[in-house]
Fold this protein.
Amino acid sequence: MTLQGVERLKSLARLVLAASLGLAFLLAPPRGTPLYWVALITFALYFVYAFVVLVFRRQLMDRGARAATLAGDAAALVVVLLLGPNLPAAFLLFFVYFTLVAGLWRGWRAAALLSLAVSAAYVAVSWREVEAATGASWWSALPLESWLVVSGLLVAGGLVGAVAERQRGQLERAAVIEHFAALLSLDAGWPEPARRWLAALAERYEAARALLAYRDPESDRVLLWVFRGGAFEEQDRPPRDAHEFLLDKEPRAFLAADLPARFAEEFSPRGLMSAPLAAGGGPGRLFLLDRARGAFTLPQLEDLGQLLAGLEPGLTNLLLIRSQIARAVDLERDRIVRHLHDGVAQTLASVEMQLNVYRRLLAENPAKTAEELAGLQTVVKQEQEELRRFLRTLKPVRVPATELGRWMFAHCAQFEQETGIEVDFWADPVNAALPEGICREVFWILREALHNVQKHARAQHVMVRLRQDDSFLRLLVDDDGCGFSFTGTYSQRALEEQGLGPVSIGERTRALGGTLTIDSSPGSGSTLRVDIPLT
């Protein structure tokens, strides 16, 4: 448990105690004692004190302030002990409170020792009152019931302390799980969450290396995260490595086992602790290797199993996100391959065939061959320019929301200058809090749309509009070219089902959770609309 957690529990318990003391005092006031008014004032002040400490507990976290709050508790305890025989309910409440605090801080043994000291003080005060009234000795003055009460207090103190110690353990475990779950967040971008999570595990268990193996349920391949020497490495292993790293025949956690030969040869662990995990829909296993001081222990193994069980939702989310990133990379690779195949590869194949023809034609008609070669040179230059443009699209760019309009305007101006196609651009100011990832994708969609206009539409004029309201960001690209091969308005689903429209724009739009709509009039132009939800 963290210090803040302990202080929060103490503050809440103190306020409940103060209210209960006041109620017990009002229900059964000890009017026979000269300390009546002292007790009344003490309990009233203690309630105010408990309320103030609860409200300002964050400002009272230093050692001196905590000592002062305990001094206030001790002062109230002295009054309660003096009134113990006359106000047993108040004594019992304070007894439970102090044994609870002792259990939270030092466990049941500290609570048992404290209950012994408080019980002894209670016996001493009770005896002095009896002695003053009867003159009897302490061992004969107190009735058997009082000794039974003291014995019960000793047992109760130990039990309350044990419960508090168990609660402390649960809260400590919850705090550790919360800490490790926070490390799995994607605030720093991939793969930093995986690196810092494995680094924290290695530090907690004093391991030199940490490995996580996971089998992707879709591809059946084995994903391996390796942390060693402060560096993180992700490896993609074939399905046959599942036995090496997932140890299907060893479903339990273990400290040492007969490891597969390849695993032992590749990592040569001097000491090993491993626990299975279930996350992301596939089996997985965590390995911690080479403890800095001695061997791994059974308590560490039990703690690791409990920690992984609590982290299952966070790990599942991280693995799903990692899988989505991998799919996005695969889609981008497919797009690059498709673009190079449909463009540069086909052009080079055509150039090769034409060169073979011109080589045979050269001896027969040199003039005709020179003319044809000039045309071929023009094609090569065009393809070279197309390749340069495509390479520019692969370069990562940062497009903050405050710069989105300027970036789009600059690209439209460059497009107009390079192609001679007139572009009319207008954009609403976008919300400065718009995520950079959305802005970057919208910019890429615009570039792809204008490239398609240049390559296929044979347009003279293009209108580009960017609009934003509370719910959507909308991009419109309207041209007066030849349009698509279909007539009418097609949704993204219809385009995908029939294999129509720009594939890469549809993929980028879907990745943003948006929708693509195309309205086409063959011979008159087309309108491309992308709507991206913002809520």
About this structure: The chain has four domains: 3-180, 192-310, 324-395, 397-535. The radius of gyration is 38 Å. The longest helix spans residues 312-364. The CA atoms of residues 8 and 57 lie 7 Å apart.
